[in-house]
Structures are given as structure tokens and as C-alpha cells.
Amino acid sequence: MKATRFSSAKPVQALKPTKTVSLDEDPTKASDALPLPLHLTNAAFFTLFFSLVYFLLSRWREKIRTSTPLHVVTFSEIVAIIAFVASFIYLLGFFGIDFVQSLVFRPSPDVWISEDEEEENEFFLCKEDARKVPCGQALDCSLPPLAPQATIVTAQKVFDEKPVTVLMEEDEEIIKSVVAGTTPSYSLESKLGDCKRAAAIRREALQRLTGKSLSGLPLEGFDYESVLGQCCEMPVGYVQIPVGIAGPLLLNGREFSVPMATTEGCLVASTNRGCKAIHLSGGATCVLLKDGMTRAPVVRFGTAKRAADLKLYLEDPDNFETLSVVFNRSSRFGRLQGIKCAIAGKNLYMRFTCSTGDAMGMNMVSKGVQNVLDFLQTDFPDMDVLGISGEKFCSDKKPAAVNWIEGRGKSVVCEAIIPGDVVRKVLKTSVESLVELNMLKNLTGSAMAGALGGFNAHASNIVSAVYIATGQDPAQNIESSHCITMMEAVNAGKDLHVSVTMPSIEVGTVGGGTQLASQSACLNLLGVKGASKEMPGANSRTLATVVAGAVLAGELSLMSAISAGQLVNSHMKYNRSSKDVSKASS
Ligand code: ADP
After folding, report:
1. N or C end: fewer C-beta atoms under 10 angstroms in the chain?
2. What is the value of pTM for the model shown?
């Protein structure tokens, strides 16, 4: 058995100084002092030992037969006894020392790993692919120990067939120093140069510090290098969210299987039913109206007059070309589309809009804006830049009328005509009831609630689920879910015209979480993974249409369920399993 199999970062034999290890693993050994090679010396002692046993037993038998007292010994018997004792000591010293030491010294459990444990681990490693239970269980710290921990093996299914993570003696020291606050948790990745080991150490330290177990939050099976400096700091594991598929969604003549990451029962099933209704109706059509990400810095002047001067300068068409050249230097893909300004006293809010190719574009637009601000500083040296993001005027991750009215990211409208018999047979309702419900719920009801962009049944449900599955920024579901759902009876009242208008869908297929393995697989399923080779921006635009198409399906299905009085029943069926919840919580 090779000890190195258990280590992800460092050979385990360093922890087992008294173990026999192969010569090529440990070049300096006590056995080097022997006159013969080790295996020959061992063979000689074995032969000698068993020959002597045989000789002494036969002499003993002979003495019993001839009634000779046992203490009367010949010279050859004395020599044999001495040689027997010597060979016994050699063999015990060689093969039994670990056993004797384990009895006598009983080493600290955080340093040593027994042969049995090692074999168990070996067996476990061989079996790991057959395991269904995710990892982290060996790190179960429901009662966090105060004394040094035993060697910690996170026993889980592993990522790209690497060995499971083992925390070793020196890791124990690092864990202790993180717990003591001597080593900052955030510095583990840079100190160790091994993101997974850093996550395992941080996780263990966290469990000890909080006294709370992270068992159930997997550690193994994730590429921690891929999130470093991009997606998540100080990771201790990852949350698993199931991905369901709704579809095929027939949209602009193409079929899409829509991945939805959610833990809300009914949502995928409902969206799937909407997709079916759309498919049977010949599909939906989605049109992209606008594609521009925004950033709105705020600057301050000594007077409102100076703020107004800059506003006029920025909005003068004659200056646009110069400004766009400066802005566009930031990226091959970021292209300035326009600047809109708003004044509050002597403060000026400048809303820059630019196309961003296949990226969602926040970084790209921020870089371009920074270029322009630096440029403006020459002509407006009294301009005081208060922030690259003027908060409510961008407006990122907040409900704001500016996004609802002006749009942010991709603005789309998506429609379908659902024949009356599809409404009856698939959606189990009628055109008339749907139209009436939409008027009273999504339009009047939302108006009564003072909704801002929320004239829909549950757009954010679908937006969030697709965003999580495809690596979008889930916080942007706020403005991305702005949606007005319209329903009208057409074709002399027989059929239903349904549409969703969504002005602020903020999606990308490059950058951020889109490059992570799972999210990238979901983008691949939609045929929009990464940057579009043919036409930069085509992938992210297609993704925006898919989001709107899926919202259309979701709106159709939920509205139908409400109008047919099925909502509570279906939620009882899909949201409430018959599992004993009290057991789960314990
Ligand atoms: P975001 O602006 O959405 O935060 P990033 O700026 O992090 O995204 O990622 C975009 C990066 O991807 C940029 O470095 C850009 O040059 C690169 N890139 C490559 N191909 C494309 C493309 N087709 N569209 C947009 N960006 C692309």
C-alpha cells in the first residue's frame, strides 16, 4: 500500500516515520547499515529462526523420549538457544516494532494513522465511485473537539478523479492558527497555493470556531481554483441546487430545453406545461428591442451651473464621437451608445449605456466610464467624482423606474397566440377567464399595490431559476424580472394573445459565474455557451430571449392554474411531500 495515495498535497509518509516505506520513497534508512541487502538479511533470519525452532523442538522431543532432564543441555543446544533468541529479537524488532510502539507510546492521534485505518481508507478510495452520499461527513463536528483532531479525511466522491482531501499534521497547525486568529482565513489560498486544501482548512476552523457542523455542505466535487479571484472568496464548500428542465420551448423557430435551478416544487412542472401549450400553438416569437448595459457615476461641482455645463457638454451630439472613442478603449466589445444626465442641485448623474457583446457587461461599462471620467477631468478640473456608481440612477440590483422605463441590459418583448382548444385542453381554462384574471390581477392588482415593473404573475420565479442555472448574477433578478404580462382575446375571441415585455434582462454568456463547470453545461444545453464566434453578443441576446420565452410559459401556466382554481392543489402535490418534516429538522 502506498501512503501517498491518501494525500492531496503532501506525501503521508512524512507523518509516519517508523513505518516501513519503499526505498525509493525514503532514501536514508537504518537498514542501509546492514552488510546484506535488507530482503536477503530478512530471508536469512527467517530461515535461521525456523531451522532453530525445528532443531530445538526435535531435541525437546528426544529428551522426553529418553527421560533426560530438560536443564541438561549440550553445547550445540546452548548455541541454538542463543541464536533462536537473537533471531527472534531481530524479527520482532523489524516486523513488530510498530505494534510494540503503539502499545507502549500510544502516540497522539492527530499525528499517526494506523495500518487498519489506512486499509480502511484504501478500501474506501477504491469504493468511492460507488458512494452516493456527498462528502463532508468525516468533518462532522457537531461536538467540536478541543483537543487536537484525528487525521481528517473528507470522504466523498471526488472531482476529476483526484484523491480525497486529507488534512495532515501541518494542516492541524494552520487550523489552530486560523482559529486563534493568527492566520487570516482569507489568506489561506495565497499562503498554501492550493485552493481546495485552503477550503478544507477554513471549513474545519469554522466548525471549531462556531461549534456548528457543516456536515451536508459538500467540500469535494468542486473546482475551487475556478472561483478564485472571480466568483467567491473564502469558500468552505458549495450549495447543491437541483436543476430541472422545462421544454422544449419553441421560440423563434428553435427548440430550447430550459435549465432551471430551483428548490421550489411545482415551478419546473408549471413552466413545462406552459412550454407545451406554446409548442402546440406553433411557438413563441421574441424580439430584442434594445441591448445596452448602464453605469451612472455621480459627480459634484461647486455650483449647479457647472453641473449643467457638463450635462450640456455630454449631451451635445458633436461631442459624442470623442467621448465614444475614449469610452471604447476599455474593451473590444464595449461600445458607447449614449449618455443621459440628471441633475440634483450641483450634483450630476450621468447614465452611460453601452453594448457589451456576450458579457453581462458591468465590468466592461465601468471601465469605459472610468476612461471618460479621467478624460473629462482635463476640461472640468473642478469636477469631484463621488462614485463610479451613482446608485439609484444606474440602477443595479434595485427596483427603479429608470430601468423599467429606459431599460437596462436586454429589452425584449415575447408573444404567442394560444388557440382556444390548447387553452382548454392543456391549460384547463378558458381564454375569457385568463384575459379577465390578467386584467384584475397583473394589471389592476399590481397598480393597486403600487408595483414598479411588477405587472406579472411570477416572472422572478423563472428569471431566478434560469439565472442560477446559467451562472448569471442572481441579484440582478430584481430588475431583470420587471415584466408586464398582457393577455387579449383575438380571432373573434376564440384564441389568446399573450405577451411578456421585459425591459431589463441582464444576462451574459462570458465572465462571472458563466465559466463554472455546471453553469457552463447549462449554457451549452441552450447552445449559447461562451462567446459567439460568428457575431459577438449573439449568445447573450439569445439567452435573453430564452429567459423571456420561459417567463411567457411560466405566466401562461400559473395564470391558468389560478383561473382554474388548481393552484393550491398543485402546490400541495409538488411542494409538500409526505416526508416527516420534524424528522428532517432533527
Ligand atoms: P462583465 O462585464 O459581464 O462583468 P467581464 O468583463 O468579467 O464581464 O468579462 C468579459 C470578458 O470577456 C472581457 O475581458 C472580454 O474581453 C471577454 N470577451 C471575450 N469574448 C467576448 C464577447 N464575445 N463578448 C464580450 N466579452 C467577451
Report:
1. C
2. 0.72
